[in-house]
């Protein structure tokens, strides 16, 4: 029984090295064009978000600066 367990322990890792390691990639150019188009859509959505953030900061700064203005008589 001890011999069988030893042989099983020695031969089990050998099967992990039996694979070829080659990966077939049959996705083609259409899939890469689709992913590129999706990346383009996502990246172009940053432009309005950045503009909106800049306008928001301008409004907040103007409101805060008006509250600290000393009124002249």
Could you characterize the architecture of this molecule?
With 73 residues, the chain is mostly helical. The protein has a domain at 25-73. 67% of the residues lie in helices and 0% in strands. It has 3 helices and no strands. The protein has helices at 2-11, 28-44, 46-67. The longest helix is centred in the last third of the chain and has 22 residues, at 46-67. The radius of gyration is 32 Å and the shape is elongated.
Percent helix range:
55-70%
* Rg value: 32 Å
* Helix count from the secondary structure assignment: 3
* Biggest pleated sheet: none
Order of helices and strands: HHH
Overall strand count? 0
| Separation of the first and last Cα atoms | 103 Å
Tell the overall outline.
elongated
Structural class: mainly alpha
Beta-strand residue fraction? under 5%
Mean pLDDT figure: 80
Poorly predicted ranges:
none
């Amino acid at each position: 029984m001890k011999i069988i367990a030893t042989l099983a322990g020695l031969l089990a890792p050998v099967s992990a090295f039996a694979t070829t390691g080659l990966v077939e990639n049959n996705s083609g150019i259409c899939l890469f064009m689709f992913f590129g188009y999706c990346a383009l859509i996502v990246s172009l959505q940053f432009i309005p978000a950045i503009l909106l953030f800049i306008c928001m900061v301008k409004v907040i700064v103007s409101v805060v600066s008006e509250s600290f203005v000393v009124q002249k008589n």
